[in-house]
């Protein structure tokens, strides 16, 4: 067991956790030497199933490579996500995909906003699922999925975002899921899962204040409190609220259909 922390440590941690935010506009200024290595050093102390440490990191500094990755993201991820989002009612679409006008103009506009290749360095986090063989896979996941791999990678990434914030640097979480173009560009062997792209740089914008649900709504003591259960419809209300919309509008414009 770790030695008990005092309040000062907790306050420091909470302060860091609360001041970190996603920074979606980064300066191209170079990072102080060793910054990314410090971030990775922190990340590699993350928890992982059976201490399997499935992570590896590709630090991309070469401008052409950064641009190639960003171009792939625009061509594959944004395009795909745009059309997927069109399947939802407008009030529930992600705000980035909730625009007006001609769809093809919208796509071009959304693509033009992806500028993270301007960041001086990208950390591409990849995972080697074979290292998960160290864990009791069947017991933990009933053999259903590889969640132990992504759980460990997520832990590692969270620490890296915090470490960057502690150094006064901004980061963003670039979800990719789609593997192929990045695998080709970065010469990554098939066995790896390409998990995340983290652009790192000095923030070019003021940090946004974080918004979170009330803690009271999410804590249950001793047993699950059924009074806190939210219906499926309630979840839709919640999602619409996150987007600053109300479902009333949806009901009016789309009738009773759900
Ligand atoms: C699993 C996951 C996926 C995310 N995907 C993206 C993404 O693709 N692009 C992006 O800009 N932010 C992404 N984010 C960041 C969230 O949007 C962000 O953390 C959330 O809105 C809270 O804002 P904050 O990070 O400023 O506190 C992702 C975060 C997580 C944990």
UniProtKB/TrEMBL annotation:
Domain Nitroreductase: 17-201
UniProt key word Iron: no
A molecular-function term among this protein's GO annotations: oxidoreductase activity
Keywords tagged on the record: Flavoprotein, FMN, Oxidoreductase
UniProt cross-references to Gene3D superfamilies, sorted A to Z: NADH Oxidase
Record Pfam families: Nitroreductase
Name the record gives this protein: Nitroreductase domain-containing protein
Organism listed in the record: Paenibacillus validus
């Amino acid at each position: 067991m770790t030695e008990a922390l005092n309040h000062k440590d907790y306050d420091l941690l909470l302060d860091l956790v609360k001041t970190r935010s996603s920074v979606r506009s980064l300066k191209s200024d170079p990072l102080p030497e060793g910054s990314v290595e410090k971030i990775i050093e922190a990340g590699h102390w993350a928890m992982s199933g059976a201490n399997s440490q499935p992570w590896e990191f590709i630090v991309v500094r070469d401008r052409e490579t950064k641009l190639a990755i960003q171009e792939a993201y625009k061509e594959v991820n944004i395009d795909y996500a745009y059309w997927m989002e069109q399947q939802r009612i407008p009030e529930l679409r992600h705000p980035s995909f909730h625009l007006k006008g001609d769809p093809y103009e919208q796509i071009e506009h959304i693509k033009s906003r992806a500028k993270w290749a301007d960041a001086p360095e990208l950390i591409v986090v990849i995972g080697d699922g074979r290292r998960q063989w160290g864990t009791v896979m069947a017991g933990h996941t009933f053999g259903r999925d590889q969640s132990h791999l992504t759980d460990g990678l997520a832990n590692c990434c969270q620490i890296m975002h915090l470490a960057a914030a502690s150094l006064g640097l901004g980061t963003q979480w670039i979800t990719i899921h789609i593997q192929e173009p990045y695998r080709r560009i970065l010469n990554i062997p098939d066995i790896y899962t390409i998990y995340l792209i983290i652009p790192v740089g000095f923030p070019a914008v003021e940090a946004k204040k974080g918004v979170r649900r009330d803690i009271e709504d999410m804590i249950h003591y001793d047993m699950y409190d059924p009074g806190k259960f939210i219906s499926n419809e309630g979840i839709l209300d919640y999602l619409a609220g996150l987007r600053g919309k109300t479902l009333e509008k949806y009901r009016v414009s789309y009738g009773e259909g759900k």
